[in-house]
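As a warm-up, study this chain.
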Amino acid sequence: MPPEGAASLVSGDVRRHNLTLVLEHLTRTGASARSEISDATGLTRGSVTALAQVLVEAGILSEAEPTGGSKGRPLTRLAISASRIALLAVQVAADEVTVLLVTLSGVELYRASRPHGRPMGRPERVLDVVAAVVGGALEAAVDASRRVADVTVVVLAPVGGTPARVLGDVTLGWGEVDVIGGLLRRLPALPADVVRLESDIPLAATAELGALAYVGDALYIKGDSNIAGGLVVGGKVVRGWHGLGGSMAHLPVVTGGAPCECGQRGCLVTVAGIDALLDAAGDDGRPMRGSPSAALEAFVDRVLDGEPRAVAAWQDAVAWIGQVLQIVSAVADPRVVVVGGHWARLAESIGSAFQSNRPLIAAAGMPLSTDVVAGVLGSDAGLRGAVEAARDRLLADPAALIKFNA
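Now compare it with the structure written out below.
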């Protein structure tokens, strides 16, 4: 049960909002004294003291040993502990399933990966692996005396519908798949109300922008087993009517080009996707076609090593990538383009292709300024975005936070 006084403190909208202000401040800045929280949030020191007391009694916050303040007075700083709570994210990639279990403050408690063998068109076999790795993480949570407050299944595919389903995954040969239903059938003890399904792109874009300290307007493009993209406007991911906001893989850039699996011709993926790159670069990647991640990593190595055929293949592809970014940037006007996945190692050449044909600001006669930067989270971007989103949901609902930590 929540500690005495917690329910009444959380019951009002203003109090709930103020609790969230305190928690969000501590998430952004780390351990802070009550006076520092007051100064940063605009709450009175008396209010901060009362809010902190409830959160400390509920085990959500912990107090550090007093240290010297600016005027020599000892300061007791507060930090998020939530010692009973854990957040879980599991990602279904082209080659393997990876699970991540973290504390509310993001400290890693458990991580495991398992290959799924890439059984094309057989989602049940992949879901068996998902259930196995999630089950291991749930056991790790019990061993750590933690309660899992949120489970996010991350897929590298579009998600939609109610309840949410995978709409189609070209990399795994899936059509519409009820991933959550399949997981709950295999793990019936898993509470359905804490499980959600998300596409990796909105999560990865948000996590990468946070890690790079960019906010506001951005494009995110990722090259892995498939090409994917996301659009951030005003700090919020644009999902769009079908959940495909910012998607760039199927922009038809080559008039009368090769047929694409989506039904169009000349999509970006037909000239810059993994199959196009490996075919143009020769046979070196073919033994690893069963592992798209390994094949693309080997291709990038060859490009960076200057191997002629791989370089030529990339030069052809990157021209199309640059053109797509130019088109989308003309509409979205981003402050930054973040390049993720295996393409992050080739971000410099993508930036050069993008900057090769940029318009001028008419009044000033100056080029539009848009940075192109490499992502820093690699294959972890979606997982990190998932646990960060879960954390934010809990911080916005202090009553649920206290309940789970009881």
